[in-house]
Write a structure and sequence with these properties.
Number of strands: 4
Strand order of the largest sheet: 1-2-3-4
CATH class: Alpha Beta
Helix content: 40-55%
Order of helices and strands: HEEEE
Largest sheet: 4 strands, antiparallel
Number of helices: 1
Oligomer: single chain
Structural class: alpha+beta
Strand content: 35-45%
CATH architecture: 2-Layer Sandwich
Shape: rod-shaped
Number of domains: 1
């Protein structure tokens, strides 16, 4: 008997091992894509919050936008994602505390908050 080639059984076993490996890699790829999507959204939300916070920091404390209260700036779409933006202004012993909140939903409700203190 000549044993120079592969048997059909050896080829099938090799294909099964290859298929299992490819399925594992496909699962990792899906996880990677989800992680990238989340990272993109949180980066956009951070940009939105920081941009608006810089605007508020450049206003005088007497500005209407910096009076004590809760402010809803409504939804705005960035990079295909609807971000709901709001902020609060509160008096403290040292000045005014501004909390800027950006909320979005990418299958799960998510939010980030950045804060700053403005001295009186």
């Amino acid at each position: 008997m000549n044993k120079k080639g592969f048997t059909l059984l050896e080829v099938l076993v090799g294909l099964v091992i290859l298929a299992v490996g490819l399925l594992a890699i496909a699962g990792l790829q899906i996880t990677s894509v989800r992680g990238n999507f989340f990272s993109k959204n949180i980066t956009e939300a951070s940009y939105v919050a920081q941009d608006r916070m810089e605007f508020l920091n450049n206003l005088p404390l007497t500005a209407t936008e910096l009076q004590v209260g809760n402010y809803n700036e409504g939804p705005q779409t960035y990079a295909g994602v609807a971000f709901n933006r709001s902020y609060t202004v509160a008096n403290t012993a040292d000045g005014r505390l501004i909390n800027y909140i950006v909320r979005w939903n990418d299958g799960v409700d998510r939010s980030i908050t950045i804060s700053t203190m403005r001295a009186i």
